[in-house]
Design brief:
With about 600 residues, the chain is an alpha/beta fold. The protein contains 19 helices and 22 strands. It starts with 10 loop residues before the first strand and ends in a 12-residue tail after the last strand.
């Protein structure tokens, strides 16, 4: 299939089911572009640091094939120096020359890794999407990123995962890449057609009025030429295998598991099943984890979310990959998680229970069900099973606050109630298009219509606000400054909280380093490694932020190894929480 695609600069957009090999396909096409001299490097951009870390492990294996004899794979995000696999990769490449000095390729890799902007000058760069978006903003030395992006094949995975504000910046990146004669590859399993057309148009492709509704689908746009489509329906050999997920809906108040539900989850794990329960809120996941731990005596229960310090999250993420990944070590285990497992993590569960969420994210979650062929699935779980928790009376509560789009939740809710099984990949296009269609459904409540209008106006404002920011003539910010990083994200993403502890010698970070004993570089690193995100609803309790917009939370060490102050508590197992039962805490979203 790759051999049939154009060997020239352009935008390739790949839509296909989760786990169907989009990453490998994108890399194969990028290799063709490198071989023909269209590009000199590859930059792989992902939504989060966790997904970037996971991609590094995959790219390490293919790097020697793309660049024989050279292995300059550079990881660029604020915590790359703490990624054990990346540091091991660098060390493995160290070999002395005949003169006793380090090989030039290793010296080059070290130099590239010293700055996040220099990742764009290497052979293979793995980064978060923020690092790419900064290339069109007024930050110092942005031309280094811009130059690096233009000379590379820019690969953006999970392109559906970005909000309207980030799309405003991404479309500017694509426009600049096309203008400079560069190339890009975008990949997604759940991209609505209107977003696909927006991206193709940003490149300069001529999008026809009647677009293809096929799925899977490959689209290619040159600058100023009609968009070309490859419909895989006519090539059965290239189609992914059909897969049916058996669906069960349960109405639950606040989308919380009942005691009977919990007993069923524990029983399934006792019978050897790997069960995932995905919550929309960190606080919900923490509370459910406690309930499961209290009731399950012999079954291990893991917790995974985004409100951990980096070092603790690394340990947990590695454990999750070992127990629930492709080569999983465990049977009879329960994972309680949040949205962190939706994207780019190669996990495999026998039974999935999830709270209601937008249809595209629901399909991402279902993509972790029976992801790999196995002959050892326990009895009763030979087929993929998904249980979706729905609210009675269509009361979405804080889940609507999280996703901000009541219409999408309501429509997803209604579609789920219509069937007891869904078949992939056939379900992708009709469900996603019907849920995200601008046309009103006949039975849509007035409140849902009003919410759609409000959401649309807000999204358009954020999209064009980001475009204006990218085009503004303003004083450049330092690209290490917190303000620069904030420029690539919508301001609704929560609060950054710096966790400190009170000790006899003074204030220290939770990793034990004394705050006053660090130089500027060490302090910046310590602040990054000891920060977590918290809900905006905690703002009043956290006081005033510092000049960098961070909230300092000084905790007291406890005998059980945790730290706490008032209702706030941090432990390496549970993360940062506002303890349940404290009357001063209103229920807050993630």
């Amino acid at each position: 299939m790759v051999d049939d695609l154009p060997r020239e600069a352009g935008l390739l957009l790949v839509e296909g089911p989760t786990g169907c090999g989009k990453t490998e396909f994108g890399l194969a096409y990028a290799a063709h572009l490198l071989a023909t001299g269209v590009a000199e490097a590859i930059i792989f951009a992902l939504p989060t640091q966790a997904t970037a870390n996971a991609m590094l492990n995959r790219l390490e294996k293919v790097a020697p094939n793309l660049f024989p004899g050279r292995k300059n794979v550079v990881l660029a995000h604020g915590r790359a120096s703490r990624h054990e696999g990346y540091m091991a990769l660098k060390e493995a490449g160290r070999r002395p020359t005949a003169q006793g000095k380090e090989d030039a390729a290793v010296q080059c890799a070290d130099w590239l890794a010293q700055s996040r902007k220099r990742v764009f000058l290497g052979q293979i760069g793995v980064c978060t999407i923020d690092q790419v978006l900064i290339s069109v903003l007024a930050v110092r030395h942005h031309f280094v990123r811009a130059f690096g992006v233009r000379r590379a094949v820019l690969i953006v995975d999970e392109v559906h995962a970005y909000d309207a504000y980030m799309y405003g910046l991404l479309t500017r990146v694509l426009h600049a890449q096309a203008t400079a004669g560069g190339s890009a590859i975008l990949m997604s399993a759940t991209l609505p057609a209107y977003q696909r057309d927006l991206l193709l148009d940003a490149w300069g492709g001529e999008v026809p009025e009647q677009q293809s509704s096929a799925y899977p689908l490959i689209s290619w746009a040159g600058r100023g030429t009609p968009v070309r489509y490859w419909d895989l329906q006519g090539e059965p050999a290239h189609l992914p295998e059909s897969r049916t997920v058996f669906l069960e809906c349960r109405e639950r108040v606040d989308l919380r598991l009942s005691d009977q539900d919990i007993d069923q989850v524990i029983q399934a794990a006792n019978e050897g099943a790997c069960v995932a329960v995905i919550c929309n809120l960190v606080s919900e996941a923490q509370g459910l984890w406690r309930r499961l731990r209290e009731r399950s005596l012999n079954v291990p229960v893991d917790l995974f979310h985004a409100r951990y310090l980096f070092a603790d999250r690394q340990v947990i993420e590695q454990r999750v990959m070992e127990y629930y990944g492709r080569d999983r070590m465990a049977a009879g285990r329960i994972l309680v998680a949040t949205q962190v497992v939706e994207q780019s993590l190669d996990l495999d569960f026998d039974w999935l229970i999830t709270q209601l969420c937008p249809v595209d994210l629901l399909f991402q979650r279902m993509g972790r069900l029976h992801r790999h062929p196995r002959t050892d699935r326990p009895a009763g779980f030979e087929d993929p099973r998904c249980t979706v928790l729905l609210p009675p009376d269509e009361q979405y509560g804080l889940h609507e606050v999280i996703y901000r789009y009541r219409r999408v939740l309501w429509r997803t809710h209604r579609r789920l109630q219509e069937t007891d099984r869904i078949t992939f990949p056939d379900v992708y296009r009709p469900w996603i298009e019907s849920v995200y269609s601008e046309e009103a459904w006949l039975d849509e409540p007035e409140a849902v219509l009003q919410n759609w209008e409000t959401f649309q106006n807000s999204a358009l404002g954020k999209f064009f606000g980001a475009r204006q920011l990218a085009e503004a003539d303003m004083m450049p910010l330092q690209d290490t400054d917190a303000n620069a990083a904030a420029m690539t994200r919508d301001g609704d993403n929560g609060l950054k909280v710096l966790l400190l502890q009170s000790m006899s010698q003074g204030v220290a970070y939770l990793d034990g380093r004394q705050e006053s004993a660090l130089d500027d570089f060490e302090r910046r690193e310590a602040e990054d490694l000891n920060a977590v995100n918290a809900p905006k609803g905690w703002k009043a309790a956290l006081g005033n932020p510092d000049e960098h917009g961070r909230y300092r939370l000084i905790l007291e060490p406890q005998a059980d190894g945790s730290w706490s102050v008032g209702a706030m508590r941090y432990s390496r197992e549970i993360g940062l929480e506002w303890r349940e039962g404290d009357s001063s805490l209103p229920s807050q979203p993630q």
